[in-house]
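We were asked to recover a plausible sequence for a given structure. The inputs and outputs are reproduced exactly as logged, with field labels preserved.

PROBLEM: sequence recovery
POSITIONS: 385
GIVEN STRUCTURE:
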């Protein structure tokens, strides 16, 4: 019986020790799984293009023989369907419902813009506190970016901009060679992470500003069922995105400059389509998004940003480390107690025990000395008689 109890105790103690050791190993694995805690999401450039064939233009802005558009002149209706692909190297799954996504495409007012100065002012390029609105961008379906996986966002761009909204931008594209193009996105996304196999989710609304430098180009266009290269306004550089409302807007705006995005210009006589005198010089852009013949190219590499707030990242990383470290410490203490207590209990159970004497037997037995003295007295009495 004793050996059976000791065996059961040893088995249970060993089992608990293995459970605590496994808990320590699992907690260490979870901690290492989140190291590094954050890495940039990699989203490919999609190639922005507003094609002149989509504009409704008056006769004076069209080459001879090309039929003019119908009033109202400008850019209206669906102008682009874009598929963006991203890779998420982090351990967080991000879910964006199409109803929680709203993005708008803007042009700055170039009439009060001076390069080297205006990109550092929050008010520059704005009229009555706002940029010139061009189009609304919407998600066509929910966007799911798996943890440590790839996701695809399908968007539609719907324009609602009269021709007057583009005149300053077009003039800057001719006289300078480029102009900035901005996008403001307000999105509520749900981020989910699995810790010890338990999903933990948090929803947060974020405002993201993106910008690129755009200019004249030849963009692929479908006309009459044929794919041709036609004039358009194309993104020429890498896209820069920053989150954080006004702070993100200022950071993005300061980063969208020719010197920071690798854009340069070369002097070239103005073409008739520019509306400028032929003896005037119109700079031609040289950038990653356009080749030597002016045809649009997809900018290589990934979109720059958006970058999460460093303080938020540090706060979440500290929470994760505190939780996993607590589990590791508790598991180590329990493992140590199990390793010490189990052998002690087993040795105590296996220790030999002495025979026990019952109370009834003790009361019935008579000491030898007392018995001898009583018998002797009886013998002495018999002799005297």
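RECOVERED SEQUENCE:
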């Amino acid at each position: 019986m004793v050996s059976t109890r000791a065996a059961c105790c040893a088995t249970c103690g060993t089992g608990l020790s293995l459970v605590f050791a496994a808990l320590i190993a699992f907690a260490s694995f979870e901690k290492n799984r989140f190291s590094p805690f954050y890495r940039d999401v990699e989203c490919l450039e999609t190639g922005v293009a507003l094609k002149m064939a989509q504009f409704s233009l008056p006769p004076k802005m069209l080459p001879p023989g090309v039929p003019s558009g119908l009033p109202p002149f400008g850019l209206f209706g669906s102008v682009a369907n874009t598929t963006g692909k991203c890779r998420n190297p982090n351990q967080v799954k991000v879910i964006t419902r199409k109803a929680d996504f709203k993005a708008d495409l803007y042009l700055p007012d170039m009439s009060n813009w001076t390069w080297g100065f205006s990109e550092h002012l929050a008010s520059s390029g704005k009229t009555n506190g706002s940029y010139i609105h061009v189009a609304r961008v919407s998600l066509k379906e929910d966007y799911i970016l798996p943890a440590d996986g790839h996701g695809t966002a399908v968007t539609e761009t719907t324009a609602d901009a009269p021709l007057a909204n583009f005149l300053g931008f077009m003039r800057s594209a001719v006289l300078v060679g480029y102009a900035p193009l901005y996008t403001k996105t307000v999105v509520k996304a749900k981020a989910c992470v699995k810790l010890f196999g338990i999903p933990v989710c948090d929803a947060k609304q974020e405002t993201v500003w993106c910008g690129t430098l755009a200019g004249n180009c030849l963009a692929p266009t479908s006309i009459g069922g044929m794919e041709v290269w036609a004039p358009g306004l194309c993104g020429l550089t890498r896209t820069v995105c920053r989150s954080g409302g006004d702070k993100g807007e200022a950071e993005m705006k300061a980063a969208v400059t020719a010197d920071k995005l690798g854009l340069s210009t070369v002097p070239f006589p103005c073409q008739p389509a520019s509306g400028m005198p032929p003896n005037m010089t119109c700079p031609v852009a040289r950038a990653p998004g356009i080749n030597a013949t002016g045809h649009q190219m997809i900018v290589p590499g990934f979109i720059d940003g958006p970058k999460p707030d460093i303080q938020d990242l540090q706060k979440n990383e500290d929470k994760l480390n505190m939780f996993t470290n607590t589990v590791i410490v508790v598991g180590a203490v329990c493992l140590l107690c199990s390793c010490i207590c189990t052998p002690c209990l087993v040795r105590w159970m296996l220790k030999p025990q002495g025979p026990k004497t019952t109370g009834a037997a003790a009361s019935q037995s008579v000491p030898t000395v007392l018995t001898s003295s009583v018998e002797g007295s009886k013998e002495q009495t018999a002799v005297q008689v």
